[in-house]
Amino acid sequence: MDDNIKRAAEDIVEAGNKKVVALTGAGMSVDSGIPPFRGKGGLWEEFDPEVYAHIVTFKQDPAKSWKMLKDLIGLITRAEPNAGHFGLAELEKIGFLSCIITQNIDGLHQRAGSREVIEFHGNNRWLVCLDCEKRYEVSEVFPLKEVPPICDKCGGNKLKPDAVFFGEMIPPENLSRSNREAVNCKLMLAVGTSAVVYPAAGMPEIAKRNGAKIIEINPEKTPLTSSISDYIIEGSAGEIMPEIVKGVRQLSKQKIN
Ligand code: APR
């Protein structure tokens, strides 16, 4: 077993009962076939999310935002959780993980069995008409008949995913619960996030200030790596997470025996 994976398993066991929090980002779902927002190889090289997923763009020109959204939501709808999602679900089941703070809107953590999930940026299960407020389940609108989709109640063309766009507020309950979890944890796993979009990217800083260890799992270094993280395990979430959980299981068995 890679030294840092062994070290992470030891740190998790040492943190103890429900003292680990995971902050996850788009990299978590790359092994499920959903491209990340930033970095190479992403579908989003074509679409800058800070333009296409900005609330001002959406209100002025929903057809422009929907060029990106139709592919993203289409992909998410077909995706399945990967071994990384299942690893975190297992870590909760065996008593170490307090919660996941996810920036993802794909619902894959819950589908893998995680129960305590803070959807920091909302989710993709619902669409809401910004003109008349009618809500639609994604399955009522997808596959799309037209781009942008039209509200069948008011005829408006502003059906927006119920996720947080750039320029919108984080739901206050998500922010306050995440802050609390970051303050109280003894260890934070930052998995598959580039850690550049605030306030989510500030959670490891809060945890660190309150004495927690920070472990990154990411094939690439991030702004956290040199300043905040104790160490990084360089690799994909789908490969690394199950290995860490295996190590945690072995160590906690040894402790019992
Ligand atoms: N496993 C783990 N990490 C990976 C993998 C993988 N298989 N593949 C890529 N990564 C890493 C990349 O190296 C990068 O650091 O995942 C990170 C993805 O970064 P972003 O695309 O910026 O995703 P995220 O951090 O979630 O973005 C934050 O920005 O566009 C907004 O609202 C959107 O929630 C999103 C927010």
How would you characterize this protein structure?
The strands form two sheets. A six-stranded parallel sheet has the order 3-2-1-7-8-9, sandwiched between helices. The protein has a three-stranded antiparallel sheet with strand order 5-4-6. It is elongated and about 60 Å long. The model has no long low-confidence stretch (mean pLDDT 94). The chain has helices spanning 3-15, 49-52, 55-60, 62-78, 83-93, 108-111, 138-141, 172-184, 203-209, 223-227, 237-256; strands spanning 20-24, 97-102, 117-119, 122-129, 135-137, 159-163, 187-191, 213-217, 231-233. The chain has two domains: 1-34 and 81-121 and 171-257, TPP-binding domain (Rossmann fold, 3-Layer(aba) Sandwich); 35-78 and 122-163, SIR2/SIRT2 'Small Domain'. The chain is an alpha/beta fold. Strand 7, helix 9 and strand 8 (213-217) form a beta-alpha-beta unit. Adenosine-5-diphosphoribose binds next to loops.
List the helices and strands and how they pair.
Layout: H1 3-15, E1 20-24, H2 49-52, H3 55-60, H4 62-78, H5 83-93, E2 97-102, H6 108-111, E3 117-119, E4 122-129, E5 135-137, H7 138-141, E6 159-163, H8 172-184, E7 187-191, H9 203-209, E8 213-217, H10 223-227, E9 231-233, H11 237-256
Parallel strand pairs: 1-2, 1-7, 2-3, 7-8, 8-9
Antiparallel strand pairs: 4-5, 4-6
Helix pairs in contact: 1-11, 5-11, 8-9
The chain binds adenosine-5-diphosphoribose (APR).
Residues 25-27, 30-31, 36-39, 49, 103, 121, 192-194, 197, 218-220, 222, 236-237 line the site of adenosine-5-diphosphoribose (APR).
